[in-house]
Amino acid sequence: MAPRSFWKGYLKLSLVTCPVAMTPATSENEKVRFHTLNAKTGNRVVSQYVDAVSEKPVDEDDEVKGYQRGEDDYVMLEDDEIDAVALESTRTIDIDSFVPRDTIEWIWYDKPHYLTPNDPVGEEAFSVIRDAMASTDMVGISRLVMYRRERAVMLVPRDKGIVLWTLRYGDEVRDETDYFGHIKEGKPDPKLMTLVTKLIDERTAPWNPKMVDDPVQDKLIDIIAAKKKGGKRVARPNSTAEEPASNVINIMDALRKSIGSEAKQKRK
């Protein structure tokens, strides 16, 4: 059963408007979560804001946002001042522009959400916008207040619905040339390329969601289940993983050994 939508509003393109509902496309509800407890009493520990100088608790009504401009010097902003610069409408996804789908690199993608029509009458308008984007290989760009901040969002047609991605802010994506710029250019040895390509072929497999299973989560569930039954504390296993070589004397020999190892594993 699909979870309830967490946002309802309107999708708008010029004079075409239709009611829509949105739900996060990903979930962490199944993750094992822990509370911090007092080991002596078993009671939960609660967090509280404390004045850094007086060390006295601060009431929620006295909390205010502050921008640091110097040491122990802040510009304080009230909530209504922050709200004044936000979008006037937080319930309308007004598509401002369209861009070719392949021009927005994955590094700008933040969180995906499923966008669906929320009214049978508006379903035709939703479908027209979705199919028009799909046929032109375009994605829609809009702005929306989500998670208490105004964000740029991208609308991508997918199957019968639309995936709405929140996009990262411009100052969140670091310039790749700062990290890749020092790497030397030049083509590798063709023989090495042949061996690495063969190694890639040996390890090629169809995508399967099990490839991103969380083994730590599974082990935590086992430990919790054992403790519920009164089991003893689980000892930390000794690591049997081999340490990688600190340097490769001969990459050609290493690749040949790797390919030989892959072949043996396949035969097994």
Automatic annotation (TrEMBL):
Superkingdom: Bacteria
Keyword DNA damage applies: yes
Key word DNA-binding present: yes
Gene: ku
SMART domains assigned: Ku78 (SM00559)
GO molecular function, one term: double-stranded DNA binding
Subunit-structure text: Homodimer. Interacts with LigD.
Positions of the Ku domain: 55-185
InterPro entries, per database record: DNA_bd_Ku70/Ku80, Prok_Ku, SPOC-like_C_dom_sf
SUPFAM superfamilies: SPOC domain-like
A biological-process GO annotation: double-strand break repair via nonhomologous end joining
The family this protein is said to belong to: Belongs to the prokaryotic Ku family.
Record's keyword terms, sorted: DNA damage, DNA recombination, DNA repair, DNA-binding
Protein role: With LigD forms a non-homologous end joining (NHEJ) DNA repair enzyme, which repairs dsDNA breaks with reduced fidelity. Binds linear dsDNA with 5'- and 3'- overhangs but not closed circular dsDNA nor ssDNA. Recruits and stimulates the ligase activity of LigD.
Name of the protein in question: Non-homologous end joining protein Ku
